[in-house]
Amino acid sequence: MTIPPFRRGLHDLGRGCFAWLQPDGGWGWSNAGLVTDSGESLLVDTLFDERLTAEMLEAMRRATPAAARIGTLVNTHANGDHCYGNALVEGATIVASEASAKEMDEFPPERMAAILANASKLGAGGEFFARCFSPFAFEGIRHVAPTETFRGEQIRFVGDKEVRLLEVGPAHTRGDTLVHVPSDRVVFTGDILFIEGTPIVWAGPVGNWITACERIAALDVEVVVPGHGPACRPARALEVRDYLIHVRDEARTRFDAGLSASDAARDLPLGRHASLRDAERIAVNVHTLYREFSGWTLPDSNPIELFALMGELARR
Ligand SMILES: [Zn+2]
User: Distance between CA atoms of 230 and 4, rounded to whole angstroms?
Assistant: First the structure.
């Protein structure tokens, strides 16, 4: 199997698997996938809004009759750029890990639309939030929750094809799930992999994410479709792991020295990872790591304050 080019649209990976890629892979520009066999289909993730999702579903229907009626939709995690299009996949069984389903209920599209509508009143944080998310249309999107949840691992079938759902979170979010198709030698990783972009640790612990990267690198697959960025070979999962190890170790030194999380984020040298897209996410990563280092006794950081700090770092 060859690695498809990083071009916007649907890519046939062969053996009934497809990837929908959205350059440049930055804030909200997520990838998705389709697994088909014997006229049946399983969709991996919807997109950030309904216009983008509708365009993707239309391209899938043109590419294969199996997409005419999608039987199963798997949401890899709770971030809206992987589930806010759910309402358009009518009649499908919607599957997510139990932890992801709960997290989706806490941050539905209605909440995203409300924050964006009020962004101008939220200072520097609102300004950067709007810069990241104003290309998308959240107004009027209805939250459609998973209809079925699982914990740990689940094996499903699409026609005769086995699809393994592997819960590896909490890591990026609380319930991250990989979708592995062993016979096709493909894995869809959701946001456990950002390729050529900066990973963002919303949940942690970071150790789970590091383990997940190593698990992906060890899978017997030819094509990896990340949550953001170009498709790749499995070894590239180790680049994501190396970023996380670097940031964990550098943040720990600053935590032990008594630096505040925000000052640590300003100070931390990214080294060879500095060229990754959206490097300002270091702000969220250090804040989450500090909570982890404190034994989760530090309170959750205010998301708007995190966006303010990210905006400051992005301007540098
Ligand atoms: Zn994403």
Answer: 8
Whole domain around residue 191: which residue ranges?
9-244
pTM above 0.70, yes or no: yes
Q: Give the environment of ion ligand 1: residues with CB less than 5 A.
A: 30, 79, 81, 191, 227
- 256 φ, ψ to 5°? -65, -30
Q: How far is the CA of 179 from the centre of ligand 1 (A)?
A: 15
Please report whether residue 110 resides in a domain: yes
Give how many domains the chain has, as a whole number.
1
In a domain, 127, yes or no: yes
CATH of the domain at 51: 3.60.15.10
> Is residue 300 situated within a structural domain?
no
> What is the whole-number distance in angstroms between the Cα of residue 72 and the centre of ligand 1?
20
Residue 222 CA, ligand 1 centroid: distance in Å: 22
- Which whole-number Å values give the CA distances from 242 to 125, 176, 199, 222, in the listed order? 29, 19, 11, 21
Strands 93-97 and 72-74: parallel
Residue 177: what residue type? T
Ligand 1 centroid to Cα of residue 277, in Å, is 14
Beta carbons within 8 Å of 91's beta carbon, 6+ residues apart: 69, 70
pLDDT tens profile 221-242: 999 999 999 999 999 999 999 9
**DSSP symbols for 123-171:** HHHHHHHHHHHTTS--TTPPP---SEEESSEEEEEETTEEEEEEE--SS
pLDDT in tens, 151-190: 999 999 999 999 999 999 999 999 999 999 999 999 999 9
- Residue 253 Cα, ligand 1 centroid: separation in angstroms? 29
The helix (H) or strand (E) run that includes residue 223 is strand 223-228
In this structure, is residue 284 part of a structural domain?
no
Centre of ligand 1 from the C-alpha of residue 156, in Å: 23
Q: Alpha carbon of 15 to those of 10, 67, 181, 185: distances in Å?
A: 15, 15, 10, 9
